[in-house]
Amino acid sequence: MDSTPRSRAPFLTEHAAMSPDPQHRFYGHGGIDSASRDSFQSADNSYAYSVQYASSVDRLNPSPGPDNWSGGRERSTLQMDEKDAVYAQKSSKRKPLIIGCIGFLVVAIAGAAIAAYFVIKNKNDDDSGGKSSVKTLAVTGGDGSKVTLEDGSTFTYNNPYGGHWYHDPNNPWNNNAKAQSWTPALNETFNYGVDRVRGVPALFEKYAHITPRVVDEWGLHAAMRDDPDGGGIDQIEEHYKTFITEQDFAEIAAAGLNYIRLPIPWWAIETRDDEPFLANVCWKYVLKAIGWARKYGLRINLDLHAVPGSQNSWNHSGRLNKGVNMLNGPMGLANAQRTLDYIRIIAEFIHQPQYRDVVTMFGVLNEPREPFIGAEQLEAFYAEAYRIVREVTGSDAGAWVSIHEGFRSWGDWDDFLPNAHNLAVDYHPYIAFGDQVDQDWDARANQPCEYWAQNVQDRLTKFGLMTAGEHSNAINDCGLYLNGVEEGVRYDGTYVPEKVKSAGSCDKYTDWPNFTDARKEGLKNFAMASMDALHNYFFWTWKIGNSTASGKVECPAWSYKLGLDNGWMPTDPREADGYCGSKFEFNQTIQPGSGSVNYAQYPWPPTSIRNAGSPSTMPRYTPTGAVPTLPGGTLTVSGAKATKTVDVGNGWANSE
């Protein structure tokens, strides 16, 4: 990772006076000048328990369960390991623990075998003369064409929906690829509101029983570093290499989907001090994902999933149960400043002309816990993040800036940041974590229409673009480690954090090889109801690995690919359009705002930080140090090289 100085970056100081100009370009890439301060110095009341995640997401449904979302006493020594079970297990001796970056692939929602060709020299050719061997490879093709992968192997591209792929090493920024006939190519305009977003995240059992117990990526990376004989920290990169591959991207397009939600952690950019994460390596695979998406005509929603100090104290933020320390507690301001730096660095990269037609949406913060952070504080942060992105792109240009709703109610963001250009709000509706009742999918197939359709239509009408950044087919919490490693399941009464009444056995929801045709039909109807009700959606997740104990997927309701392969997901997602009938009728282009925003309505920094007081008395960053630069890259083919030099960008859309 290049750390060429772009601007003087801040150094953390104790109780520094506030800068008279809070709009300076970078807030911080310096060190910490007090040994007593670290990113996870927490406020006492900001820990995460599994019941809190369940009740947080369930608030989007009618008659939500008990309100455990705003804090409270610890229910169990087994803390929240949210969504662990939906991640695949690579090794035969591993349990799932969260891994960031490309392992978190979420998918959103086409011809005859046609191919054009290019000729490239073998990389060992002598350019000065003599014999020159050449390799002839296709640069584009439709259904039935042959695709050459990075390692030189090939596969047959199957896309029944009129889609075509495109990749020319001599012109790697060509955006002619088209996911399906009905989805605009990357070099065409995507009409949000009419063109639906249809989109679709492994891990290591090996360290589950060591002391201290590994429950998050912080602990996982640390345990790997302490185990060089077992492969060390390089095991993380092996996961990046093997779990999601180029062929998955081709299959996603062939499934009729057109968007990828790609969560990334802050250590894709850098780490500091004692942070144990494998720094920067993740970014290499983000670049591969961008290249694959371009090749198959898919757009990317790049989602900042984990930030310094943690925005929610859940495992997917990088560190479990060390508190909400972003915009909360003594390090709340400093961690927010650092996060805003990363937002600017990412915005500078994705707005370069080489990448901006592929990365068309930027989720600036995944699932912040507004009950701990505060409404005023979160709104101020979002407004500042939006301002920073638009300072890079221009006030009326650039990727959609997506803000998560922070576990507030439907409609709470309808009046936020009037006139903002390309601002989207992201909800994560799940039914799985509500009341656990003995009802099959057929009995609950219409619930997504009843629960969500009108609320989604209202958001599209009153706010603008709304996406469901996460949803699944689950109607209960059955599934291996879905609530956390060894935390049990509410549905069958084995839940460890609190005593619950059993609703029955989970077998009928997890034993998918024995699903009857009737059960598959009910499950498919539920899936289509969700797709239509949510309009623009990202299914969590594309695929799940097999359990090492049973040899099969144990969370079938969370795998889009498993549903496709076994008949309970529609092979063409357009089949779901209109499923909710009159409950959902929105079909018009969402007009972007003018970009004329009154930032004074959301002053940054906010007047106070929860559990810390005035920002003027808190540790904060001041301008010193170098700012990391994100490198660019293109796809390659083993044994060959392009005949032209390609400009991959310098990481900065703006030279100043």
TrEMBL record:
Gene Ontology CC terms: cell surface; extracellular region; plasma membrane
Keyword set includes Cell wall biogenesis/degradation: yes
Catalyzed reactions: Successive hydrolysis of beta-D-glucose units from the non-reducing ends of (1->3)-beta-D-glucans, releasing alpha-glucose
Record EC number: 3.2.1.58
Gene3D superfamilies documented for this protein: Glycosidases (3.20.20.80)
GO molecular function: glucan exo-1,3-beta-glucosidase activity
Pfam families named in the record: Cellulase
Keyword terms of this UniProt record: Cell membrane, Cell wall biogenesis/degradation, Glycoprotein, Glycosidase, Hydrolase, Membrane, Signal-anchor, Transmembrane, Transmembrane helix
Entry similarity comment: Belongs to the glycosyl hydrolase 5 (cellulase A) family.
Function: Glucosidase involved in the degradation of cellulosic biomass. Active on lichenan.
Protein name per its UniProtKB record: glucan 1,3-beta-glucosidase
Species: Paramarasmius palmivorus
